[in-house]
Structure to design on (256 residues):
């Protein structure tokens, strides 16, 4: 487990309210093993925050690509700690699953896109193997898989997916999965932008109304700019799951 400070002494630092400490975790993508390690490290770090209000924020993309999406969602859906407020945000991968389970039409094209984004590992973790569809049309295959998945998802998992938030604001920071549309004010952001946006957001030089803490776009190390902080370090293939820690006007990182 690695801890690393990140401060720019030449630029005024944004703040969170006094008496609080924030932990924000980037994209997990089925890596229950790394999530357990990082949660343990956060609990250890939080021992130095006695008397402070602590918030744990997961930035979305809990499923797909990695080996244990079921385990990740199971842990997060049951995770409670009296010392922490826990905020779970929605990623585009959770949105894939919700739309696939809830849709009655156009399932085949949705499954095709989701398959290209790592759903096979998620379905396998729920006990559904789609690698050999057999003699089915794309529509028949998609309906069959949707029915199997609907039956396989525990009620606690479905409640978790449906209750995910799109955004959360604390002090000078806005936490979202993907980013924001730089052409729109904060109060007019769309769900699609908050969970999907990439190039327009990443290429924007800032500033924004808040410092945006986000995942979704992978970088080898946390991407720290004056107007945004990206903490998706590609856990599913890099073995690096990253947590940003904020307190007052200071920040550091905890990584697996």
């Amino acid at each position: 487990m690695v801890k690393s400070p990140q401060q720019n002494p030449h630029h005024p630092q944004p703040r969170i309210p006094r008496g609080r400490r924030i932990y924000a975790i980037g994209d997990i993508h089925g890596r229950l093993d790394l999530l357990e390690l990082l949660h343990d490290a956060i609990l250890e770090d939080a021992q130095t925050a006695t008397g402070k209000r602590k918030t744990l924020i997961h930035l979305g993309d809990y499923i797909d690509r990695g080996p244990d999406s079921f385990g990740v969602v199971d842990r997060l859906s049951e995770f409670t700690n009296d010392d922490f407020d826990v905020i779970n945000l929605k990623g585009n991968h959770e949105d894939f699953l919700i739309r696939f389970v809830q849709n009655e039409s156009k399932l085949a094209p949705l499954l095709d896109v989701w398959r290209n984004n790592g759903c096979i590992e998620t379905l396998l973790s729920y006990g559904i193997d789609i690698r050999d569809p057999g003699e089915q049309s794309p529509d028949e295959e998609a309906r069959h898989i949707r029915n199997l998945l609907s039956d396989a998802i525990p009620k606690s998992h479905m409640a978790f997916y449906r209750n995910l938030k799109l955004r959360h604001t604390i002090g000078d920071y806005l936490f979202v999965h993907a980013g924001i549309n730089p052409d729109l004010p904060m109060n007019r952001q769309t769900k699609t932008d908050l969970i999907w946006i990439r190039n327009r957001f990443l290429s924007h030089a800032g500033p924004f109304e808040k410092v945006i803490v986000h995942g979704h776009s992978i970088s080898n190390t946390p991407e720290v700019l004056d107007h945004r902080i990206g903490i998706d370090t590609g856990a599913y293939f890099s073995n690096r799951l990253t947590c940003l820690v904020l307190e007052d006007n200071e920040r550091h990182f905890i990584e697996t």
User: Anything to note?
Assistant: The two ends are 5 Å apart (CA to CA). The domain at 2-91+167-255 is CATH 3.60.21.10 (Purple Acid Phosphatase; chain A, domain 2). Residues 31 and 208 are 32 Å apart (CA to CA).
